[in-house]
Amino acid sequence: MLDSKPQKKHGGFTLLEILIVLSVIAILGALAVPRMITAVNDISLRYVASDYSGLLQSARVRAVKLNTFYSVQAGTLAGGTSIYYIDKPTVVYAAPDPFMPINTGITVWQGPGSGAPNEAAFIANNLLFTVDPNHADAPSFSARGLPCVGAAGSCNPVAGQGFVVFMSRPTVTGNIPWVAVVVNPSGHIQIWTCDNTGAWIQRD
To answer: Model's pTM, two decimal places?
Structure first.
């Protein structure tokens, strides 16, 4: 005898439905991934700026404590790693100088001429002090904790002058985030970031 009960249809998705879902996922991924990469890169660069700011503060504290002057300058470890370290101006790095490693993908530029967005306006309108113009000068601190231009055997403060160090790190998406670590004439250290409109924002 034939079964008169209606046959149940098996649930599932058609091939077309699956293709539509995959297409939507691909589109959302294409929109979200670049933003995620940019966000991660921004955060990574801010961490580097924070570490550099901490190194500057350590140099300032050391200068005051030991009643002398110290600089934060670029160097290279024996293995080839790029670093920034604390020591007297022009003195080559040697352990146990405090230092921080710097990623090779990060560009660091002291003073004007970095190519940062709206750099001139940022210096003129936001910093409101004279920035040390010499790219080769390492940010230094006197025995009073004030910024000074270091040289072998001396470090002379310039009234109303401080330092700004720009950092950038290009991303695979072509976006280039920027941060600036600032030492004002009173020796206070600040971190600024640049948004995608070219506006600079103080973060500390």
So the answer is: 0.82
Give 117-166 pLDDT, tens digit per residue.
999 999 999 999 999 999 999 999 999 999 999 888 899 899 999 999 99
What is the second-level CATH architecture of the domain 49-202? 3-Layer(bab) Sandwich (3.55)
CA-closest candidate to residue 71, choices 163, 168, 159: 163
**Beta strands in the chain, from DSSP E residues, in sequence order:** 70-76, 82-87, 99-101, 107-110, 130-131, 139-141, 147-151, 154-156, 161-168, 178-183, 189-194, 200-202
User: Is the pLDDT confidence value at 58 over 80?
Assistant: yes
Domain boundaries, the chain: 49-202
